[in-house]
Amino acid sequence: MDVVVSFLNEISFFGYEQEDLQEELDLLNASIKECEEHPENLKATTADDLRERFGLPKEEIYQHEMAKAQSFYKAGMDYTQYCKTVELEKIKDSLMAQ
Length: 98
Prior knowledge:
By secondary structure, this protein is mostly helical. It contains four helices and no strands. It folds into two domains: 1-42, no CATH class; 59-98. The longest helix is centred in the last third of the chain and has 35 residues, at 63-97. The two termini are 31 Å apart.
């Protein structure tokens, strides 16, 4: 999974082809340097600003959908905790058997 995440991170910045990698790195480093040297030029942008700029509709939030999304998230967290507990019990049992 670490390799996949690293790969996706790399291609999200530089693309799949590596021919222009150094040029892209130079541009990225120049942008970082510009931000560090002139923080007064940085501008905060809200989600509403981006939606307006790109012509995207404002996202409507419905309470019943939020409740369902929160329930889904909580169920996922509960299941993850359950899986961790089961695995820890297996490890504990295998150590006790030795």
